[in-house]
């Protein structure tokens, strides 16, 4: 099963793209790095001193993400996934039965940290979502107010921190790997991407 890694700054359309691709390539499996935030004592302690702790890879349980990916690649029937409740700051584990019958299937890893969990990106299909900063902020604001109970001032502060941290570290990834750029301003960008993925399948 081919693995697609979708990364990009906050609000750039990563989740939207992963949902579209999982529908188009029927039965594809989506793993969201946002679901694997830690809720242990260390993270809660550090969050007192680092306001933006959840915008850093330290806050993600990379080992559990890799365990989930490994289980899927082994085609295990019962797969452990995680879910993170942002309002309660609580992580929970669920087990899901996976159907591997379809050949038209990708494993999609999606999230702002998806390119930084320590897998071999020379063996994956790497996609970077891009859009204007102001548009990304509007998407982030709408999501965080509705799903995470945050006010505008808090969202703006977190968004700017997240945006700056993402672009501070993306250069080495782009230089070291073959990456498909999905530019939301280019109306034909999505169609070009789909054609590339169909050729790979």
Strand order within the widest sheet? 2-5-1-6-7
Please tell me the CATH architecture by its name. 3-Layer(aba) Sandwich
Q: What number of structural domains do the residues give?
A: 1
The string of secondary-structure elements, in order, is: EHEHHEEEEHHEH
Helix percent reads 40-55%
Under CATH, the topology is which?
Answer: Rossmann fold
Radius of gyration: 17 Å
How large is the count of helical segments?
A: 6
CATH class: Alpha Beta
Q: What's the count of strands? A: 7
Q: What fraction of the residues are assigned to beta strands by DSSP?
A: 15-25%
Superfamily (CATH H level) name: P-loop containing nucleotide triphosphate hydrolases
Low-confidence stretches: none
Largest β-sheet summary: 5 strands, parallel
Tell me, rounded to a whole number, the average pLDDT: 89
Structural class comes to alpha/beta
Shape: globular
End-to-end C-alpha gap: 10 Å
Structure description:
It is a single chain. The chain has 6 helices and 7 strands. With 201 residues, the chain is of the alpha/beta class. It has one domain (2-190): P-loop containing nucleotide triphosphate hydrolases (Rossmann fold), CATH 3.40.50.300. The strands form 2 sheets. It has a 5-stranded parallel beta sheet, with helices on both faces. A two-stranded antiparallel sheet has the order 3-4. A hairpin with a 4-residue loop joins strand 3 (78-85) and strand 4 (90-97). The longest helix has 25 residues, at 152-176. The N and C termini lie close together (10 Å).
């Amino acid at each position: 099963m081919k693995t697609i890694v979708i990364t990009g700054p906050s609000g750039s359309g990563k989740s939207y793209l992963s949902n579209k691709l999982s529908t188009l390539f029927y039965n594809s499996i989506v793993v969201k790095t946002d679901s694997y935030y830690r809720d242990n004592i260390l993270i809660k302690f550090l969050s007192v001193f680092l306001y933006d702790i959840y915008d850093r890879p330290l806050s993600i349980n990379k080992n559990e993400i890799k365990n989930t990916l490994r289980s899927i690649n082994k085609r295990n029937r019962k797969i452990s996934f995680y879910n993170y409740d942002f309002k309660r700051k609580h992580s929970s584990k669920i087990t899901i039965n996976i159907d591997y019958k379809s050949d038209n299937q990708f494993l999609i890893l999606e999230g702002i940290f998806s390119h930084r969990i320590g897998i071999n990106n020379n063996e994956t299909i790497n996609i970077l979502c891009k859009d204007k900063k102001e548009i990304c902020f509007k998407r982030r604001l709408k999501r965080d107010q509705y799903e995470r109970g945050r006010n505008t001032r808090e969202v703006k502060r977190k968004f700017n921190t997240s945006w700056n941290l993402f672009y501070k570290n993306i250069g080495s990834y782009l230089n070291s790997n073959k990456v498909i750029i999905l530019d939301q301003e280019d109306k034909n960008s999505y169609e070009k991407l789909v054609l590339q993925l169909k050729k790979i399948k």
